[in-house]
Amino acid sequence: MSTRRAPSRLAGYYFGLIALLYLPIAILFLFSINANTTLSFPMRGLTLGWYKNLLESGAVLRAARNSLVVAAGSSAVATALGTMVALLIARYQFRAKGLLVALAVLPLIVPFVVLAVALLILFSALHVDRSLWTIGIGHTVVALPYTLLIVVARLAGFDPNLEEAAMDLGANYPTTLRRIVLPVIAPAMV
């Protein structure tokens, strides 16, 4: 085999694999615009009626709204809490630092089903009714370690002399945090 043909053959295998991975999605789309009520070929015709029914369904729209509310709320809370804990871990030395890191990343190790059952048992023991709030708390618990690890990694490359220079020039810590630290770590928070 010549060395010139090897990259083109590898590219062919790559694109073949990508096509194989996307083939089920393409077939699913084809069946979604099929006028026939069963999944069969040949197709009787094309229709967007199934999508119209989907958008007219109140239950589907409520579910989509609930999903967006939970996603927005839990990601905002996880970002805020994860950033605060990351600042604490990166900036300060204290005895329970290892324990805090272990507890913060524990949801990455525990399977999601076990975590969900544990939260269900906790909320039941506390007599908290299941609602969007409890779902949001569960999603926050799952998202928090990702935020924490990404922000800690960003803070590891952050020069603390920038903070010291801002404070030497008269800025208090909240101002330094808002005008120096947060703009530098903002890409990690997003």
Tell me what you see in this structure.
- Helix content is about 80%, strand content about 0%.
- The two termini are about 45 Å apart.
- α3 packs parallel to α6, α4 (about 95-110) packs across α6 (about 130-155) and α7 packs antiparallel against α8.
- The protein has 2 domains: about 5-55, no CATH class; about 70-155, no CATH class.
- About 10% of the residues are buried.
- The chain has about 190 residues and is an all-alpha fold.
- It is built from 8 helices and no strands.
- It is extended, with a radius of gyration of 25 Å.
**Percentage of residues in strands:** under 5%
Please count the beta strands (DSSP E, at least 2 residues each): 0
Radius of gyration over all CA atoms, rounded: 25 Å
Task: Compute the separation of the termini in Å.
Answer: 47 Å
Helix-strand sequence: HHHHHHHH
Low-confidence stretches: none
What is the mean predicted local confidence, pLDDT? Answer: 87
The largest pleated sheet is described as: none
Oligomer: single chain
Molecular shape: extended
